[in-house]
Amino acid sequence: MRRYQLNRRGFLLATGSALLAPAIVHAADEPIRLGSVLSTTGPAAWLGDPEDKTLRMYVEEINKNGGVLGRKLQLFIYDDGSDAAKANSFGKRLIQQDNVDVILGAATTGTSLALVPLVEAAKVCLMSFGAARVLIDPVRPYVFKIPHSDTMAVQAVLGEMKSRGFRKIALISDTGGFGKSGRTETMKVAQQLGLTLTINESFGERDTDMTPLLTHVKQSDAEALLMISTGQAPAIIARNYKQLDLKLPLYTTHSQASYEFIRIAGPASEGIRMPTPALLLADSLPANDPQKKVTTDYKNAFEAKYKIDVSTFGGYAYDGLMIVVDAIKRAKSTEKAKLHQAIEQTRGFVGVSGIFTYSPTDHEGLDTSAFHMVEVKNGKFVEYKI
Amino acid sequence: MSDFLQYVFSGLTSGSIYALAALGFTIIFNARNVVNFAQGSFLMLGGMITATLITAKVPLPFAVAAATVITVIIGGLVQRLAIAPVKDADPVNLVIITIGASIFIDGIAAVVFGKNQHMVPAFSGDHAIHILGATLLPQSVWVMATAAVLMAGVSWYFRATLAGKAMRAVSINSNAASLVGIRPDRTVLVAFGLSAFLGAMAGAVASPITTTVFDIGLLLGLKGFVGATFGGLGSAVGAVVGGILVGLFESLVAGYISTSYKDAVPFVLIIGILICRPQGLFGSRVLDRV
Question: What is the pLDDT of residues B205-260, one digit of tens each?
């Protein structure tokens, strides 16, 4: 009988496989790492907070039902305080330390732009909840956007102004990322449509009194007023507008499509018009609308859990998460290149903000058909046809 | 003409808020030679606590009173816990401590009250008053009237009451004051309480106009400090005049030049006054340049 000798090579092989075996077994249980940078504090908190709540709620729900591809979702969320510099540093942490597979966020255009160079370098997909066109034009391979762009909002609003016979428009915008981008888009679209901007002024995001600015508007011969801003200022502007007894119609963008805005602005919000995704009109959508089920389900679930009104911003987070989950299922993996391809191949995905179809040349996914024009009437958003 | 009046109304309203904050800075500076950057947080607390209590269906006068009382207590705590223990610290260190206190208070507010914008209903309605073609909110009248009453009250306090005179004595020479039986540490505590009272009232009465959020104290307090420095840090009259001037300049620049430059105004003013006349418009003390 030969004595069995454990030589050096055999020893290493045995130890190596003993150590690797648990790793191989656990690789299949390795969680899917979702990163997120959101503005849960700061002027954009009413955008970031519902997004944060939505992500946590649905990640918990999906994990309860077995996760995705049998793997649990692990969510890493950081608060950038509505500050682009902080968003950038949290983006670095998500990519370098937390090793996330995909990033959901940030809540605004400014903070999202701060993440763009990081995800491009690391080849990690970014599903942005910022709205400005500048995020996806020119198309960056790894940056996708959920909300309608400011271009679409501006086209919807200026289109309606033109059809109502207005030629002279006043534009006021904030100096943040969304305001600046919206201003550029408005100037472009106004020129295309042959409208004149008699006033074109900016204000600070944290300003608490815009009566001097609105006095300029009152002095001018503008026939309608477009306000492009996110955060705290719009509610204050609405109140200043009422104080100065301004009569010209007031329009804004989908950044104000939330009951929170109506609550803060109070009676001053009456009559303000804006475009909004279907989510805000979930209850009044006809039964055969393809978005009816997904919007009513999300609205009821969110309101039951958090006891606050649903908002379109939470809707963006819902769509972002669900598109990523759907892409992971189609790709059958979270490997970065496969996930990127799967997200880019999203076709006809019914979300609460619209029906998404991405392509290598279109990382926006939506067109104006998903937009509804609404007016605030008796404290509610009511749709009207132009 | 009506536009100018509109800008003046806007400027006087913000100016009144800055003036009350500036007065708070001056009182503490006089009592303890420290610039208390937590003053902005006192303004925030006044507005936030009032907003929270009103949402809980507390009647407005009780909400404002409770907010003021709580803020005064917090002001006293800041003095006892953050300033008193570091008796002979460098003035710069004391300033840094007050900045830390302000960040701490704002952070607690974010956790307790949430990070959203809050609304307080106007005290006597939103129906604008029309004067010579310009409009004035009733709430603006409340702000200006409250500021005037409080300033008169503070002036009477310093002139006519023993406690007020004691505080003036401490500010002139705290050693001599203690020799005649005045307790400087008690006086400083009262100074903090009084500043917190002014800040809270300013914040509460302004909140229907500015809306309120946990970090609104940063900018308002800073502009109040600019007002105090512009008027002369150490002079109560200077603080009030400085605060109102900052508000007016802001509004006039926004009206006649552009709203984009509005936020630059206080900072241009403070650089200008420190270069041209560092003791401020009404100040007579020579300040140490750090």
Answer: 999 998 898 888 988 889 999 999 998 888 888 899 999 999 999 999 999 988 88
Among B132, B135, B212, B267, the strongest candidate for a mutation testing the A interface, having the largest count of A CBs within 10 A, is B135
Within 267-286 of A, beta carbons closer than 8 Å to B belong to 267-268
Q: How far is A83 from chain B (nearest CA, A)?
A: 13
pLDDT at A6 over 80: no
Contact A175 B7 (CB under 8 A): no
C-alpha distances in Å from residue A79, one per residue of A82, A88, B61:
8, 11, 36
Cα–Cα dist A353/A147, whole Å: 7
- Residue in this structure with the two tokens 């105090």, named with its chain if needed: B228
Residue A27 has pLDDT above 70, yes or no: no
| ipTM for this prediction | 0.79
Check CB contact of B55 with chain A, cutoff 8 Å. Answer: no
Q: How far is CA A29 from CA A26, A338, B86, B265, in A?
A: 5, 19, 55, 58
Q: Is A370 helix (H, G, I), strand (E, B) or coil?
A: helix
For residue range A341-369, list pLDDT tens digits in order. 999 999 999 999 999 999 999 999 998 77
Name the residue among A46, A210, A216 with its Cβ closest to that of B117.
A46
Question: Which residue's entry shows tokens 């009592």?
Answer: B31
Tell how far CA A172 is from the center of its chain: 22
Burial of A240 (0-12, 13-18, 19+ CB in 10 A): buried
Question: CB of A212 within 8 A of CB of B259?
Answer: yes
